[in-house]
Amino acid sequence: MNVKNKSRNGRSGGHPPLEAAQLQAVAELFGVLSEGSRLRILQILQAGPLSVGELVEQSRLKQANVSKQLGILQSAGIIDRRQDGNRAIYSIKLPLVFELCELVCHGVAKQAAERAAALARNA
Amino acid sequence: MNVKNKSRNGRSGGHPPLEAAQLQAVAELFGVLSEGSRLRILQILQAGPLSVGELVEQSRLKQANVSKQLGILQSAGIIDRRQDGNRAIYSIKLPLVFELCELVCHGVAKQAAERAAALARNA
DNA sequence: TTACTATATTGCTATACTGCGATATAGTCA
DNA sequence: TGACTATATCGCAGTATAGCAATATAGTAA
């Protein structure tokens, strides 16, 4: 996830080829989702809102790391933060991410199946 | 995109919480898609197969960089390579990626709209 | 073979990121 | 106020990556 590279091509004419700025936004979202620890946190949060401490327990990640990744997820607009007394409660804000993951899972699974089939054919 | 971290949790019982290995595979795919230059190449290839030289022209990236990114995209199983005489022709193999990008675009656009609306309310 | 074109790879620098321990900050309770 | 808990941030070491120029490789044509 590189946040520079703000170039621009002078394309107009609607949307099909996606403007450079959009492209960059898409790349950034993918970048946020490209880290195992963050996906793990999202997956845990899918079951419902949790505090940082609870996330630390369930994820088995260090507190500092969980806090940092939560900050990144929040900056990306993927999760929400709510202060509850002493604690911070995080929750999913963009359920879209789960659709993305499912799509990828199907794609990856299909690919793996195809590769296996190809191997079987060549064996 | 970190390719290590091959841990495993002993979950069974179907699919909902996604196994660690799957999670890692998803993260890797997202990692490949998290670079502007690669998305740009994919977008250009969406119109049809092209040689490296043509991609260099249309993308305005350097040849070495295009070649490197093509290699990464191919390793990820997203594009295919075919040798045609002197040249290498690359084509999309996993159209899934465009679904992903569209989903993200919609999500990002919606988010932007919501943010703008929120700003308007608070102004 | 040589000259030429197209693509891939290597070595490099700069940058960015993760995960860590230590520490700072914020909120609660007495 | 002080002691305590929960969360955020800082500084660091290690690692990964992009993009570049230069070079190597492969294929074509003479």
In the sheet with the most strands of chain A, the strands line up as 1-3-2
Task: Find the biggest chain interface.
Answer: A-B, 37 and 38 residues
Overall helicity of chain A: 55-70%
Terminal Cα span of chain A: 40 Å
Structural class of chain A: mainly alpha
Which percent band covers the strand fraction of chain A?
5-15%
The sequence of SSEs of chain A as H and E is: HHEHHEEH
Overall strand count of chain A: 3
Question: Regarding quaternary structure, how should these chains be classified?
Answer: homodimer
Please count the helical segments of chain A: 5
Q: Report the average pLDDT across residues of chain A.
A: 84
- Model regions low in confidence, pLDDT < 50 over at least 5 residues of chain A: 1-15
Q: Radius of gyration of chain A over alpha carbons?
A: 19 Å
Structure in words:
Two copies of one chain form a homodimer. Chain A has helices at 20-32, 36-45, 52-59, 63-75, 96-122, and strands at 50-51, 79-84, 87-92. With 123 residues, chain A is mainly alpha-helical. In chain A, a hairpin with a 2-residue loop joins strand 2 (79-84) and strand 3 (87-92). Chain A is globular, with a radius of gyration of 19 Å. The N and C termini of chain A lie far apart (40 Å). At the A-B interface, helix 1, helix 2 and helix 5 of A face helix 1, helix 2 and helix 5 of B. The first copy, chain A, binds a DNA duplex (30 and 30 nucleotides) through residues 1-5, 35, 37, 51-53, 61-71, 83, 85-88.
Which descriptors apply to this entry?
123 residues, 3-stranded antiparallel sheet, disordered N terminus, mainly alpha, 11% strand, homodimer
